[in-house]
C-alpha cells in the first residue's frame, strides 16, 4: 500500500484534484467526497496503465504542511 498526496481545489462548479507524485493524473467532482473518490480511481487507473506499458511507477515523495503567516 502506498499513500499519494493529492491536492484538492474548489472551483466554481465543484472541485478538482491532482497529485504532484503522479504527473498528468487529474480529476474533478461535484463534492469534496466525489473528487476524493474520483482521484483514488484515477490514480489506480493511471498506475495500472503505466505498469501495462512497462513504465516505472512513481514512488510517493511529496508531503504537505501548513505555515502560519501574520494576517
Verbal overview:
- This protein is 30% helix and 17% strand.
- It is an alpha+beta fold and 71 residues long.
- The protein has a domain at 31-55.
- It has a 3-stranded antiparallel β-sheet with strand order 1-2-3, covered by helices on one side.
- The longest helix is centred in the middle third of the chain and has 21 residues, at 32-52.
- The termini are far apart.
- 14% of the residues are buried.
- The mean pLDDT is 96.
State the low-pLDDT regions, or none. Answer: none
- Mean residue pLDDT: 96
The CA-CA distance between the termini, in Å, is 40 Å
Largest sheet: 3 strands, antiparallel
Structural shape: flat
Query: What structural class is derived from the secondary structure elements?
Result: alpha+beta
Query: Residue share in helices?
Result: 25-40%
Instruction: State the strand order across the main sheet.
Output: 1-2-3
Give the radius of gyration: 14 Å
Total DSSP helices = 1
Order of helices and strands: EEEH
Number of strands: 3
Strand fraction equals 15-25%
Describe the structure concisely:
This protein is of the alpha+beta class. It has one helix at 32-52, and strands at 7-10, 15-18, 26-29.
Chain-wise SSE layout:
Blueprint: E1 7-10, E2 15-18, E3 26-29, H1 32-52
Antiparallel strand pairs: 1-2, 2-3
Keywords:
71 residues, three-stranded antiparallel sheet, alpha+beta, single chain
Amino acid at each position: 500500500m502506498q499513500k499519494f498526496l493529492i491536492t484538492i481545489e474548489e472551483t466554481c462548479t465543484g472541485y478538482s484534484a491532482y497529485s504532484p507524485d503522479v504527473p498528468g493524473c487529474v480529476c474533478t467532482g461535484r463534492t469534496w467526497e466525489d473528487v476524493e473518490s474520483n482521484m483514488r480511481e484515477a490514480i489506480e487507473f493511471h498506475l495500472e496503465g503505466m505498469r501495462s506499458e512497462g513504465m516505472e511507477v512513481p514512488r510517493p515523495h511529496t508531503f504537505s504542511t501548513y505555515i502560519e503567516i501574520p494576517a
